[in-house]
Amino acid sequence: MHCWIMAASPISSSGPRVARTMLGQVVLPGEELLLPDSAGPGTEGSAEQTLRLGAVVRPRTRVVCGPGLRRCGDRLLVTKCGRLRHKEPSGGGSGGGGGGVYWVDSQQKRYVPVKGDHVIGIVTAKSGDLFKVDVGGSEPASLSYLAFEGATKRNRPNVQVGDLIYGQFVVANKDMEPEMVCIDSNGRANGMGVIGQDGLLFKVTLGLIRKLLAPDCEIIQEIGKLYPLEIVFGMNGRIWVKARTIQQTLILANVLEACEHMTTEQRKQIFSRLSES
Amino acid sequence: MKETPLSNCERRFLLRAIEEKKRLDGRQTYDYRNIKISFGTDYGCCIVELGKTRVLGQVSCELVSPKLNRATEGILFFNLELSQMAAPAFEPGRQSDLLVKLNRLLERCLRNSKCIDTESLCVVAGEKVWQIRVDLHLLNHDGNIIDAASIAAIVALCHFRRPDVSVQGDEITLYALEERDPVPLSIHHMPICISFAFFQQGTYLLVDPNEREERVMDGLLVIAMNKHREICTIQSSGGIMLLQDQVLRCSKIAGVKVAEITELILKALENDKRVRKEGGKFGFAESIANQRITAFKMEKAPVDTSDVEEKAEEIIAEADPPSEAVSKPVLWTPGTAQIGEGIESSWGDLEEEEEEEEGGSDEVTILDSVKMETEDPSAGNHISDDAPIVLSDSEEDEIIILEPGENPKKTRTQANSKPEKVSSKKAVRKKKKKKPAN
After folding, report:
1. N or C: less crowded end of chain A, CB within 10 Å?
2. DSSP per residue, A114-172
């Protein structure tokens, strides 16, 4: 990602800044952000001084650290370059607890498996009762044949080498080989499993996937108005799309790939041209 | 890294699309991707982009003795390398098959076709000939490496200029680039490889396959031709069986494509020559566009740097002088000494002083073993250590022998302020003799 870096404050400013003031701005790895103490809005200015390591006074708010941030003492340390984002806790705050989520919106193409992510994988090997699935990470994930809906020892799922699988990670950390399953915690498939035979698989950047999966994404709504289609998004950057004809599928694939670099007007133009033809 | 496997779904889709004469990027069956040629500042350096496939070519030359059985011919050497950044599957040990095949094909195309006049590379028969070396690096792999590589090779060779040489009797004079303009190589014709990919046992044909199409293809036919419609090399791999009229058809298509590509190459060479003659800017910085992500750009906020220097100076002036960490050596027993207490090093400060000293006076202060002189205060410095006992008269090393003694006083002065007289100075340093360049 190309970052145009501007000094919003002079370089000689002292130390870390309060996270709340940096929302929407570009942060770089190595920067430290202060969490505002929840002692009250009036004392926010003096909050910086009262934070001390191991102090009896603990920050009241429990802030969740999202991707790109790491907790370092009482502060947040930025580990990825991107824009800082924050989401308020929904509801009235759960019992005076949550202080929202902070994360960094960054852009990359290479996927690192994260627990709970839904991804599209390609089956590379079948060994005994385990499938090896390539998800684009450093290691192939393992998928047990029992992790499908309605699968028993007698009733094995019909999965061949080279099939596409949509599943989620149950184990994904840097020390172990990732493991995925195709059922949710209730034992139901919920859309996961083997993806159908036709259709096209292509790869995009991770940032585009997150944008497309955001609630109320305009792009998806506009695409839906164009042609009837089936589409599966994997958080590892893979998209599977199927429309009625090959031509339509190709058009959709090209449009989605190009969406990354188009402005809203260009996109609207393209969609209007497509819907006319 | 292992290559991403191709799923059944993709394979099926691609084959079905090809049956319907549709390609992933919307090209027609016989269409080439966009070819872009850019030149570097040196002669003989170029980057060719065929769609997203990128090859960098560089030509260099050297005077060597010729081969024994070809005493009057120059030597040509071709080398194609698949860089690891081209594709995740390219690892240092793993690419041998593909690499050998590509190199062999390139050699046959360029060497056996005699496109370069090797006799003109001879300087002194039997003794000195030019060795021309063409190095090609694949920077990005998106299919059809051989085409891009052959275009890069021939463009680099046409662009290259070798130093001028004149032979008078027994004397060979090699002119440097500034003395005489370098001379282009003598190239008879430009052979270019055209690739044809076959699918479904030869039923369907595609020109210039990209990476996905290459993965599902059954076989590949490469025809190297020049614009005079002479076939330089032809190679069919993959074990498919082709009919005679298929091969003839391919050669006709190749003839058309080569004509187009040769025109493009000549135009690019012309352009570059014109820009260089007119004195305009040339090189990669000009011809390769900045690939910016133009959507969602944040506005550049102006940074006011007008008073940065003053601010910096203020900060420095107001800051406390660095603490007086005296590197006082403490001698515990004869032979062992400790300098400092393991806190932050103050070596940097010492070096600063040394430089100031040396800048200050050029004289060598030679110390006697017994006498201790106070140092010349005009340099604005001071010294810290104890009285050294000079053992040798050598003026090269600075030898400081430590002895347990009282605390030396070290005072620090700022660079620009007046030098103070230090009271209990036990002068000590033997300075390096500064030999001014005469």
Report:
1. C
2. -TT-EEEEEEEEEETTEEEEE-SSSS-EEEETTSSTT--SSS-----TT-EEEEEEEE-
Task: State whether residue B348 is helix, strand or coil.
Answer: helix
pLDDT value at residue B402? 63
Angle among Cα A165, A168, A171 to the nearest 5 degrees reads: 125
pLDDT lower than 50: segments of chain B: 354-386, 406-438
**pLDDT at residue B418, as a whole number:** 42
3-state secondary structure of A225: helix
What is the residue whose two structure tokens read 């393991």? B342
Q: Is B26 on the interface with A (CB under 8 A)?
A: yes
Q: Report d(CA B402, CA B421) in Å as an integer.
A: 24
Please report the ipTM that was assigned to this predicted complex. Answer: 0.79
What is the rounded average pLDDT of the residues A58-70?
76
Q: For residue B80, what are the β-bridge partners? A: B136
Q: What is the Cα–Cα distance from A166 to A151, expressed in whole angstroms? A: 16
Q: Residue B176 has what pLDDT?
A: 85
Q: Measure in Å the smallest separation between the Cα of A204 and chain B Cα atoms.
A: 14
SS3 A275: helix
The answer to whether residues B373 and B387 touch, using CB atoms and an 8 Å cutoff, is no
Whether residues A246 and B5 touch (CB distance < 8 A) is answered with: no
**Does residue A133 have a pLDDT over 90?**
yes
B199: Cα within 13 Å, side-chain hemisphere: 23
Record the tokens describing residue B35, joined without a space: 């070819």
pLDDT tens per residue, range A90-121: 654 444 445 688 888 888 888 999 899 999 99
What pLDDT is recorded for position B421?
Answer: 43
- Whether A2 has its CB under 8 Å from any CB of chain B: the answer is yes
Q: Do B9 and A4 touch (CB under 8 A)?
A: no
Sheet holding A229-233, edge to edge: A200-203, A238-243, A229-233
* pLDDT at residue number B185: 92
Residues of A in contact with B312 (CB under 8 A): 12
- Select from B9, B25, B293 the Cβ nearest to the Cβ of A261: B293
Residue A132 has pLDDT above 90, yes or no: yes
Say if A241 is an interface residue toward chain B (CB within 8 Å): no
d(CA B221, CA B212): 17
